[in-house]
Amino acid sequence: EVQLEESGGGLVQPGGSLRLSCAASGFTVRTNYMSWVRQAPGKGPEWVSGLYSDGTTYYPDSVKGRFTISRDNSKNTLYLQMNSLRAGDTAIYYCATLRSYGGKQAFDSWGQGTVVTVSS
Amino acid sequence: DIQMTQSPSTLSASVGDRVTITCRASQSISTWLAWYQQKPGKAPKILIYKASSLQSGVPSRFSGSGSGTEFTLTISSLQPDDFATYYCQQYNSYWTFGQGTKVEIK
Lengths: 120, 106
Fold this sequence. Notes:
The complex is a heterodimer of chains A (120) and B (106).
Chain A: E1 3-7, E2 10-12, E3 18-25, E4 33-39, E5 46-51, E6 57-58, E7 67-72, E8 77-82, E9 91-101, E10 104-110, E11 114-118
Parallel strand pairs in A: 2-11
Antiparallel strand pairs in A: 1-3, 3-8, 4-5, 4-9, 5-6, 7-8, 9-10, 9-11
Chain B: E1 4-7, E2 10-13, E3 19-25, E4 33-38, E5 45-49, E6 53-54, E7 62-67, E8 70-75, E9 85-90, E10 96-97, E11 101-105
Parallel strand pairs in B: 2-11
Antiparallel strand pairs in B: 1-3, 3-8, 4-5, 4-9, 5-6, 7-8, 9-10, 9-11
């Protein structure tokens, strides 16, 4: 059974940094497409990073240059390093697997999320 | 960037009602569209993919249609477990979600 468990969220001041972790079980992170998705209070989800099995990374403009997605194969864990945080980054952060749905990748399994609050 | 717009934002309905939610893409996405259901405190769960394909295990009262820029999610007979928020999401070019439609009890 696929399981994803996020950790590392918390309260951080504007301009600060935080590293989120996503421990995976039931599958191998290295051979799968992985992503981070966030959801601000009362808003729809927003994709914030993607990591393909070949190591290619993808980011939307809203976080490019500030967020970095990575993985530790030995720990079967996905990470999201977040720098220069802003109030608008406040959200629940989910890690999610991507799998082919009809020929292109869509979000499949999700963790329970970790809360990030950016405030002074 | 592809923008997704859903309507309505909130929908009040009763058990047994037929419910339709509309989603519009800012440019053509062919049929690369998914529908997700989210309940409070939980992560989204995929219901429909490629605009009209039902995910395994999802009740057949859920159906999707559309292509290009206009899509619909229909629940043929609303059940108590269906009161939730629904999101459309394009996966033609990266991934973008709509703002959501909350289905509440009338």
